[in-house]
Batch of 2 targets.
Target 1
Amino acid sequence: MNRLWKVIWSGHSSRAAIMFILLLVLVGLCSEVIAPHGGGGLIPFGPNEISEGTSSFLPPGTTEASGRIHYLGTDQIGRDVAARIVHGSGTVLQIGIFSTLISFLIAVLLGILSGYFGDRFLKVNLLQLVAAVITMWLGWFYARHWSLMIDDSGVIKLNTWRFLALLSAAMSITYLVTRRMQMTSLRRFFVPLDFFVLKFIEVFKAIPALFFILAMLSIFSRPSKTNVIIIIGILGWPLMTRLLRAEIMNIKQSNFVKAAKVIGLSDFRILMAHVLPGALSPLVVAFAFSVSASILVESTLSFLNIGLPQNEPSWGNVLSAARQYLAAWWMAVVPGMLIFVTVLAFNAIGDRINGTLRNN
Amino acid sequence: MRQLVLNRLLFLVPTIFIILCVAFMLQQAAPGDEVLSNLRLDGINVNLSQSEYKEAYQRQATLMNRDLPPFYWSVRPHYFPDSLYRIIPKSYRQNLKSLTLQTGDWQRVSRYHETLQKAINTGAQHKDSLGAIYVQLLKLEQSSDIQVIRNIGNRLSNRSVPSSTGTSDTLGQLKAAIDELRVRRRWSTYPVVSWNGARCQFHGWLKGLASGQRSLVDGAPVRMKILAALKWTLTLSLITLIVAGALGLAVAYYQTKNHNSWSDRVSSVIFYLFYAVPLFWLATMAVVFFTTDEYGSWTNLFPSVGLMYYTGEQPFLVQLIENIKQLILPVICLVLHSMAYLTRQVKTSLLQASNAFYTLVARSKGLNKGQVLRRHALPNALLPYITIMTAALPATFTGSLVIEVIFNIPGMGKLMFDSIRNLDWPVTFSILVLVGVVTVLAYLLADLLYVVFYPHMTKELIRK
């Protein structure tokens, strides 16, 4: 970690990038101080405050009758652009980082499954396979049946947490059941875990990204910050999984992993203590690129007015209104520039680590 | 080679089947009632009485296979009936399902269902004399909360029903059936599997995909809508793909040839920046600054956005020629954006190849830098080029939503966007299936190209 930090800090562009990101974090944390919702901070307007009078599309630097200045002008319904941008910086970082964490979690699990364990790990006989399929199917059925809830108005709802808990219980039972069935008389064959994960990625990639987002947003939920984070997070895992899989496969070939196996460490221990730390640098690279990609997706969604709701200020939200009134250049230039620079910053960090990795 | 193709084709079928299943499941979960939208398209909701409307709804639902089970097989808890899917409309079916789950007793729920339907049917004939009671009966159909149903039941018995209508018997039965409904969740159960065969909604849906459905917005055939949009999108994205592909390769070649020169550095930085620019911002800036007189007349280089002569009646070629000016700016944006990534990747791979030993050998036998790059490095560095170009193929069918929205081009992206917003599910999911199939085929094409250009990869690809 220390070495990684040194690498980032020693590059000119990546040092600037880190400083820019820290500044964004600071602004995001202090947004309530800089531009409080009630107005009267450093920027004298709240992010959702609509100025009085004919105040839409005021150019930057306009002074209101009350003596307050719109530093970056106003938008189509007279809200202060500067205040919205300040509050948007927190939103952008939250969405970028949390959605990446979600795809990260999925990618680490699947990447370990396909990269470390792979096609030649799980060996079963026919009896075990049939038993596993039946128990998992039964587990699915009972998990579903036992987590169907009736809400106050009599509508059937699936309790997701209960469902997941019951499903994992079913998995454990499947494991316990099949463990006893290692008959010597039956031929055993490998279950191609790696193959399954790759096919899963292939099918998932066949659904166009924007379609997926649109369908999810219109079918399952109302657009809110949490939902957008979850959806973007789910969208990002295939790329990360592929990267992690390749990386883990490489590390698995190395001598220190072989040595760890020889002295009899458990798979879990090898993964935690040797494989994952070895993949740290590429993980950080993937993380940085994924954050920038998530920020791009979010701003595109908000730009199309299908992402965050209007009262949740984000840079894409501000930008989308610039399309309606082409003379309002301040609404196109400033938030767009910020998105651009943020994406550039995360890319620069990724590239810096990538470059030093390749040179070593 | 043949083994690889067979292997891939073998997995093509299940992959496409899974994509179809996913599309079908999403369409089942989508909000809105397609039966209702179809009725509205036929203009049926206007002057119909309640019972006539119900009948029309039933007819339409049967026509759309809504009275069939969803999939080839179904799994249910043992105390659920095997014919619940026949009950239409869906909301009422959901209510009965909820009641069965709450009471754990289909016998009582079905008795309630039958007496309720009987009461509504007889009630409809004596609507005027029943008045408020009839409204209460209709309200029962909407509810799945046992407490609410009880309350309505109590109110029914309290009211004096005009005896001349002969409905008091039915209402009494209904009251009795309601009183029997008791909340008792059944936690212990076992699954029952029933095989439905080809008489299921999924099968009908597959047939519909092939033979054609109609849009829920304007009743136009889905195929026509998709074809009309596909023309624009394919034109736009094929131009982009060819221009960006050729330019990207040329620029990468030029940069590598003059590696670390002044022009290489400047162009690399420019493409690095273009790689990070959000496409929608690039397009918005282009529209804001280059299509209006606001910032001086010299910046008004391009016509305003939108296809001016788009009527949909002239032949496509005529429309294309008349609108060619409108397409310049979107194509420039798309080319710049897709070139940035392509150039970077190809350049990296070319640089790697030009540091390899075989390039050194080629140099030492007297070839000049350009010859070495063209004859030895380039053929070996084409792998990322193939990957990126084939991965871009599905996108030529979906188009770029952002560009189409900003420049107002009636292409696939916009069609998809609009149909999702209008809950026009037949169009939406037809597009999904189309794009899914194209994506899978693009993977196949990529594998074939790998094998053609890099035969030594065949074994590895088969194992993958």
Target 2
Amino acid sequence: MSVTLSKTYFFTLDCGLKVHNLNATDTLKLAFTNTAPTTATHLYADITSPLALTNLLTSPALTSVTYTQTTGTATLGAATWTGTSQTGNFGPFEYIVVYNDSATSKNVIGWYDYGSALTLNGANGDQLVITFPSGILTNA
Amino acid sequence: MGIFNDNFETESVGNLNGQNSWSGSILFQVQTLVKNSGSQAVGCITGGAEVTMQKTGSLVANGTFTFFVRGIAAAQGDLYLNELSQGAGNPLVHINFDVLDNYIRYFNGSSWTNLSTCTANSWYQIDIKWRSSDKKACYQINGGGYSAFDTTQQPFSSGLDTLFLDCSATTLYFDDISSTASAAVYTMVTAPASFTYTPKSSGDKRVMTMVTNKATYVLTGMASGFKRVMTMITNKATYTLTGMSSGFKRVIHLITAPTSYILTGIAAGITAKIKAIYSMITSPATYVMTGQAITIGIRKFYTMITAPAQFILTGMQAGFSSLIQNAVTRLTQFLALRKINNK
């Protein structure tokens, strides 16, 4: 079962205000929290208790970010992201927030709900693999 | 870090019970005569009664467990891996070692699966791998390749932490127990959010549309916050208006000569907000208005339609009729108009 990105209401506003340059220019990152964001979660600073990344071996940045269009529908895509924990546990978190790290205020695009709280065991090197087979979002 | 490791080299020869966190029958003895490696192993000689020995280590969600077992003729025994918090008598992973019947097998909760044959007086390395993502385990004998992951006798909750050695006939030996934890891989497949500008969301107050000669006009999925939809459409083949959500106040349509006019799916809950539906439609082949769960709130329902081949008005639920003040009147007018037109 796939998990659909929940959008913040501010994303469409931010698009109109030239906050985002999604075609590989801006760096999109993931943040992890165990508190559900809301449609009013606008900025990284609005995320409740984002996890420190100390025990995450992998960079939270998405790679191979693209923003392309086909027949009028633009798609924001990214390569599969694999996060590996290290040392201590990484978690718990249930929500993975996508935000624009290049934007001055690190504006949020949306978030995913894993469905339950997850803790990656750093001693074992537990991994979380996130795939975007149809992209992160589409804009038609 | 696995559940625990024990090659029985540090225990004293003699009764295993009480040494190095082992507990169980005094028939399990550390001995030096039969061993897989080093100078010591554990042997259990039973007179026929089933006896057990257990040890609890670290809880491991995903990992592997390896042990060596050997039996004399007609030996029979079992190995269980449990999650102690679920009860000591609640076997989860279950391996059966049976020299008498010549097989090593596992139990998946409903049936046994043979992994290998076994003969007396030979050591067998048994590897068990388990994962928490689907609570399954797989097995390997003498490094010959793992079986497919299968359900365990009973599903574990968080992981495995306790080993039970069971000897039920003649003599069994155990040696070189080791365990490692392995990484869990969690996956999340995503679907994109759609940022189309429909359906309209809360905040828009009116939709005013004037459409001429479109083949099809469809207005769907309006969300809470809409107050009015006013539509004037001429000469279209089909007009469809569906899925209005709460917040609507009025729907006003002036439509000329569609092939069909359909107004459907007005859901419960919007009803308290919709105050009136006005429709003036000339000469559709078919006019259908169905499925309104409108019970309260609608005050007016005006429809003026000239000479459709069919007119259908169905599905109004309890309460609808008492609150619609003008429906009957307008329907009467419609019938009169139709009568006039038929002239």
